[in-house]
Design a protein that fits this description.
alpha/beta; five-stranded parallel beta sheet; 21 helices; five-stranded mixed beta barrel; Rossmann fold
């Protein structure tokens, strides 16, 4: 049984996804609820839901309760709350500043032993059970006696997510599963039921993760509503920014000249433009120009700032579908007209590495059927693995083991290598593959890029000829 194998291989990092799927505590991120639900189920059994609800009600406080929490802290000297803690290094004063994100409390003191034990506090921030002490007597002060920090000390921290990430466990675990078993492990990890999908649909689902593991990869997905596009990006990582329609400015996306702060492209692993037809750019000419430059080079300029980033770009558009003669779902609409007017630019589309055929995926409607009914990898650990995999480059696989046949442009070859590298990291992280597995990855990569080429040929038939993207495996 696959669940038993997952538990044996991943140990404490194996999570029963059915438990987390039953929870509706929307005030906390899914990976936090998943972590807590697993702990409470192990401790309390079938009454875990009640116990977890009581625990959250007792320790979780909304931002509007901030002044009441501080009042209780002054009154009782110590309180315990659930919050997200982020820590900054103050190198000038040789100290640390902790921020309670949910409570919006800045510049708190923190016991350095906590930071040494949980290094992700310095990298991503962490959710956990936080013990606060009123510590006005030890607040550092400047030469005039003015306090330099908030008189609140984080004296203890019990995390609800991974403190460290050992990516080798993920790589070595792949040895224990067949290719198809590993597909099911990953689909379960995403919170979905692999029994709902055929092999091709599973591969399509996993290609959504390519921008999370491959630096500077640009994909676009068209599909009907309720196929889990936004769900996946929101629940599998906290290194993304999702823009769900609305107005987006160059300051938000690239660089805020007034505040001298990097925009989302400079700080995230991936930026997702959801419901692309409803996206509006406050300065379309500047935004599209900068997007095209960035998607090609990984660099951008705005005002005095020159920056580079590995952030990937994802566009998602909703499209109506119908069944063709073979019974497969296909888009009804011309893809170009799903884009906002300013994005109907062949130069921009050419910088997209591949088109994900989301129209082939079934809608997610019943939790008891479409959501995972088995074990998968803990979401917070998996998120960190995805982030760490960005440091690797497997594009050499194409150079060493594949011969691309035909008139590939530099941009097309680059696109195929990006898709292959990303899928390889997900499906074969142990770097031990056979020809059939590499062929499955190459088939997806060439298909995704060919779909871009076909689109460009429709837009600009004189400039972009229709091509066949063929390859041959060496050896």
């Amino acid at each position: 049984m696959l669940s038993s194998k997952i538990k044996a291989v991943f140990g404490d990092l194996a999570v029963d996804k059915r438990i987390a799927n039953k929870q509706e505590f929307t005030m906390l991120p899914r990976f936090v609820i998943e972590n807590l639900a697993s702990r409470f189920y192990e401790k309390y059994g079938e009454i875990y839901t009640q116990k977890l609800s009581e625990f959250i009600s007792k320790y979780y406080h909304e931002a509007k309760e901030r002044e009441k929490i501080l009042s209780d802290l002054m009154k009782f000297d110590k309180i315990v709350i659930i919050d997200e803690v982020r820590v900054e290094t103050d190198i000038y004063r040789r100290t640390y500043r902790a921020h309670l994100e949910n409570l919006n409390l800045r510049n708190c003191m923190i016991d350095e032993a906590i930071i040494e034990e949980h290094e992700n506090l310095l990298i991503t921030g962490m959710w956990g059970l936080v013990t606060l002490k009123y510590a006005i007597d030890i607040v550092p002060k400047d030469s005039d006696g003015n306090p330099l920090m908030t008189p609140v000390l984080i004296a203890d921290f019990r995390p609800f997510q991974c403190s460290f990430t050992d990516i080798n466990l993920f790589k070595e675990a792949r040895d224990e599963f067949t290719f198809d078993e590993w597909l099911d492990v990953l689909i379960n990890t995403l919170g979905l039921n692999p029994k709902v999908y055929d092999r091709r649909q599973k591969l399509i689902l996993l290609t959504r993760l390519i921008p999370l593991v491959e630096r500077n990869s640009n994909l676009i997905e068209f599909g009907p509503r309720a196929t889990g596009k936004t769900y996946l990006y929101r629940n599998s990582t906290y290194y993304t920014r999702i823009f769900a329609g609305g107005n987006i400015s160059p300051a938000v996306l690239f660089y805020n000249i007034q505040k001298k702060t990097l925009g989302e492209i400079g700080t995230k692993d991936a930026v997702i433009f959801d419901e692309i037809s409803k996206i509006k750019f406050s300065n379309p000419h500047e935004m599209i120009g900068k997007l095209k430059d960035y998607m090609e080079s990984g660099q951008y300029e705005r005002g005095p700032k020159k920056a580079s980033s590995g952030c990937s770009i994802v566009f998602m558009g909703n499209v109506s579908v119908e069944k063709d003669e073979s019974g497969k779902f296909v888009p009804v609409e011309e893809l170009t007209y799903i884009l906002p007017q300013e994005m109907r630019d062949s130069a921009l589309i050419d910088r997209i590495h591949g088109i994900i055929p989301g129209w082939e995926l079934p809608k997610i409607s019943k939790s008891s059927y479409h959501l995972s009914q088995s074990y998968g990898i803990a979401s917070d650990y998996f998120c960190e693995v995805l982030h760490e995999l960005r440091k690797y480059d497997y594009s050499y696989i194409v150079e060493q083991e594949v011969e691309l046949i035909g008139d590939y442009s530099i941009r097309e070859e680059k696109a195929i290598k990006k898709i292959v590298s990303g899928l390889y990291k997900l499906l074969i992280p142990n770097e031990s593959h056979d020809k059939s597995e590499l062929k499955a990855i190459m088939d997806i990569a060439t298909e995704y890029r060919k779909r871009v080429n076909d689109w460009l040929h429709i837009l600009e038939p004189g400039e972009f000829e229709k091509k066949r993207f063929e390859y041959k495996l060496r050896g």
